[in-house]
Amino acid sequence: MSNRHPIPHDAQMVFKGVIFEVWQWQQELYDGTTATFERLRRPDTAEVIATIGGQIILIEQEQPDTKKPFIGLPGGRCDRNEAPLVAAQRELKEETGYVSDNWELFHEVSPVGKIEWTVHTFIARDCRVDAEPSLDGGEKIKMRLVSFDAFLDLADLPEFQSRDLSLELLRAKYDPAAKERLHTAIFGA
Amino acid sequence: MSNRHPIPHDAQMVFKGVIFEVWQWQQELYDGTTATFERLRRPDTAEVIATIGGQIILIEQEQPDTKKPFIGLPGGRCDRNEAPLVAAQRELKEETGYVSDNWELFHEVSPVGKIEWTVHTFIARDCRVDAEPSLDGGEKIKMRLVSFDAFLDLADLPEFQSRDLSLELLRAKYDPAAKERLHTAIFGA
User: How many interface pairs between A and B have CB atoms less than 8 angstroms apart?
Assistant: First the structure.
């Protein structure tokens, strides 16, 4: 999926940080005047809905700066020139030690209008242990297995960051047909 | 509400753009090493659930750069040192020409983990026309009145950016008790 709000071709990069790039361009307005417009670019991220039997892998992690634990899917930043699927496979293995032979794209969303940034969400079915997790110095992660119903409850956690996924989960929680569709998408027919 | 992930006090501003500031700091990691961490700050925004009788004001707008029309609530950026409520009142009047004497805070959310940015959502009940809208050169806006039920349908629009509000709307759509609570919150008891 292309980004909803791509940075125009004539934009200039005015700053490059460790995560974010800042881009600006001169934009003609409706009244014929121009103004400096600004948008950001950041590396895409990949996250994984990983299943083991009828359960789904969640990770509980905290960041070195905030120290508040939060629950989410395994995943992380795509490295430069790394395909999102490869990033998803690498992050799942690094964070949990699990691998899968059965991958599928679930959805791709660009959650913030002013940031060229796509979140690629994959499904990894029937995962199996391949190695010990290999965390870097900035990660503190615990793995947790939850039922499909407990997975749907993520929509009610204010700190669960994937709001587009939350909307899917909430629909499934309330609408039996949506629940059936989501269950099939995740676990296979 | 304080921001979930505030920028630490010892961070340095390394770039200031027209909307975004980039801040960095040295963060000690779990293994004792340090790394440069980065976070953004941008002006808070204020948006308004504005009612007229049993209806709610939506605005259909397009941006000069993307040209794709999208539907949302009246609102915009808080000016420097402008209280969110004052910004909400100003934006509602500028974009629609409507004013209200009955304002209430609905919720405050920080939608993006790495950005110090709060969206303040207000309710403005029983709005009345006060003036013509006064749009600036970067705005192209049409006002639309919708029923409460049509308002709940915003949750199904992928381009509706307020995903935290979408979650509230979706709950109200499916759960009669949540619908009753939201109706009372918006229109009053």
Answer: 125
